[in-house]
């Protein structure tokens, strides 16, 4: 089993799949850091994670993935305080909403892809120093409904399609990250947790929330079950040979052919570097 010292858990670690993942890893003795933008919800989540895991080594740090400057400030603070980073879990995700980040990116693309892209790159040095280490990025099987348009990566006309594109970007990001980290002791995985009954509907109207509560009760899985593939990729011994792969139900899963194009993954990486201002 991978030695656990630090788990960095992104915004979303205070609820849903993120919180259940944090509990599962805290139960295994991990030092857990959840990064959230809402300090009150984060503090409440930390108390619950400690109570359920009997692990007092759980804390939170402030992070707003919709603001590139805030991401840089978070990484600077994290690197000053923490000398190891064994597992980075990019759990945060915005649903299909028509909104914009502080840097004028569509909310889905800005948070779901660019925020994780910048954060991961700024922490790669610590991950390599802590090798063997792992990076897990949550995606969704909805990726298959859209392809990227490099003339308009910031597409924000139809929220559901924007969400699908951001989830496809997560997959390409993981593939190119795994290629770049080959031989450096850092492995990367994209994970579809299933359709999970969580609080993602909070961004929508009351009527929609009521409707989705019925749908989720009938067809979606609980958060604890949805976290299992994330935990598997974080701690299982056999996954390291599958770096860059897409996981579902605790095993590598097939992707649509267009989602396995290394030239597109490389092109997205280079475009993302320009968009977030990485050298």
Helix/strand layout:
Elements: E1 6-9, H1 16-27, E2 31-36, H2 39-53, E3 58-62, H3 68-81, E4 87-90, H4 107-129, E5 133-138, H5 159-180, E6 186-192, H6 206-219, H7 223-226, H8 228-235, E7 246-248, E8 251-252, H9 262-276
Parallel strand pairs: 1-2, 1-4, 2-3, 4-5, 5-6, 6-7
Antiparallel strand pairs: 7-8
Describe the structure.
The protein has an 8-stranded mixed beta sheet, sandwiched between helices. It has a single domain (6-276), classed as NAD(P)-binding Rossmann-like Domain (Rossmann fold). The protein is an alpha/beta fold. Strand 7 (246-248) and strand 8 (251-252) form a beta hairpin. It has helices spanning 16-27, 39-53, 68-81, 107-129, 159-180, 206-219, 223-226, 228-235, 262-276; strands at 6-9, 31-36, 58-62, 87-90, 133-138, 186-192, 246-248, 251-252. The chain is globular. Helix 1 (16-27) runs parallel beside helix 2, helix 3 (68-81) packs parallel to helix 4 (107-129) and helix 4 runs parallel beside helix 5. The protein has 9 helices and 8 strands. Mean pLDDT is 88; it is low at 1-5.
């Amino acid at each position: 089993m991978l030695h656990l010292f630090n788990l960095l858990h992104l915004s979303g670690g205070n609820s849903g799949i993120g919180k259940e993942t944090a509990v599962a890893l805290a139960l295994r003795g991990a030092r857990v850091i959840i990064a959230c933008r809402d300090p009150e919800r984060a503090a409440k989540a930390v108390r619950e994670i400690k109570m359920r895991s009997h692990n007092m080594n759980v804390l939170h740090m402030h992070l707003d993935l919709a603001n590139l400057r805030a991401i840089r400030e978070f990484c600077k603070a994290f690197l000053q305080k923490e000398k190891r980073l064994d597992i980075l879990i990019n759990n945060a995700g915005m649903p299909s909403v028509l909104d914009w980040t502080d840097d004028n990116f569509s909310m889905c693309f800005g948070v779901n892809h660019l925020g994780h892209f910048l954060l991961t790159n700024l922490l790669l040095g610590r991950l390599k120093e802590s090798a063997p280490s792992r990076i897990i990025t949550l995606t969704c099987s909805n990726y298959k409904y859209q392809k990227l348009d490099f003339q308009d990566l910031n597409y924000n006309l139809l929220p559901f399609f924007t969400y699908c594109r951001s989830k496809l970007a997560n997959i390409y990001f993981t593939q190119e990250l795994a290629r770049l980290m080959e031989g450096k002791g850092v492995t990367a995985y994209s994970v579809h947790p299933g359709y999970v009954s969580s609080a993602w509907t909070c961004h929508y109207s009351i009527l929609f929330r009521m409707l989705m509560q019925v749908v989720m009760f009938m067809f979606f899985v609980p958060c604890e079950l949805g976290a299992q593939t994330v935990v598997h990729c974080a701690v299982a011994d056999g996954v390291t040979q599958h770096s860059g792969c897409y996981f579902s139900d605790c095993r590598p899963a097939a992707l649509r052919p267009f989602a396995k194009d290394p030239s597109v993954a490389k092109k997205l990486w280079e475009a993302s570097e320009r968009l977030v201002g990485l050298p």
